[in-house]
Design a protein that fits this description.
heterodimer, A: Nuclear Transport Factor 2, Chain: A, 5-stranded mixed sheet, B: alpha+beta, 6-stranded mixed sheet, 5 helices, about 40% strand
Chain lengths: ~170, ~160
Amino acid sequence: MKQLINSMLKAGSMFIIMTFLISTGCQQQPDYSKELKPIFDKYYEVWKTGNVDELDAIIDPSFMRHADAGSSAKSLDELKKVITEFKNTFSDVKLVSEEEIFTENKFAGRWSFTGKTTGSGERSSNGKSVSQWGINIIHFKDGKIIEEWDGFDNVPMLEQLGFVMTPPATEKK
Amino acid sequence: MKNFKAFVLLYMAVLFASCTNPDSQVQENIKMYTNVWDEILNKGNIDMIDTHFASNYVSKTVTSTVNGKTEAKAYYGAFLTGFSDIEFVVEEIFGKEDRLVKRWIFNGTHSGEFSGIPPTGKKITVKGVSVARIVDGKIAEELDYMDDLGFLQQLGVIPTLGK
């Protein structure tokens, strides 16, 4: 009887050890968000606050941002100018990260933005509210952001600001 | 005791079998997704939508929402009739779980009517980013951004300040 209990215990502990080994070996994709999300969150924070000096700690000096002509940047310094111009152009800025995907040294997500053009920037004179959404991809290297692609659409944005799109056929009339 | 050992072995087997590698699933989705868009845009095989899109497919762009396969065929079909010499290049693609993300470039010649604009013969280049969701091996959802302003400007559309 004692022998039976002993062997049951032995088998039971084997059972637990094996289950543990398999379940740890059978992991989901590693959770890269732990490492990358704090950097990403800081970056978004700077877009909201305009405190561009905080970028030094999270942006690689050789940073590149691919976006529309007005908000692309080829260096950290150019990025600071882009964000400062953005902050000057819009007030009541609400920038929300709607979806976030983190993989190894990469991020992709969707953002939404609302703001008012009441600041002091180029497009700021008419005080209209605008909203926009976009998708961005960010590459990280050694704990810093090295490259970004930011996709958003300027047609609805311009329409909200009162622009009309004139097709070439109409233009000729 | 023998039964118990057999039970443990069976249990382990089930555990192993249910342990699919999430990364290989993503790789499989990438292969399918890349191939489907290559077929549709580069080879003009619009019927890939019938076989590889989910019946409740939804695509959201900044300006429109496409619901279901029929609307998808009309929406993407417009690019095939509006443009020739189409070259659709995926610059980067990666994913996690059921999600895929891609950066792409669309090159083409505006040789047919597109979005009410008569053919201009112009060569255009548009860049975009898409996020997709793959369910049971089919494309179920896409969020699509493309540089619409740059695109329309290349077609000769000029934004003017309305009154």
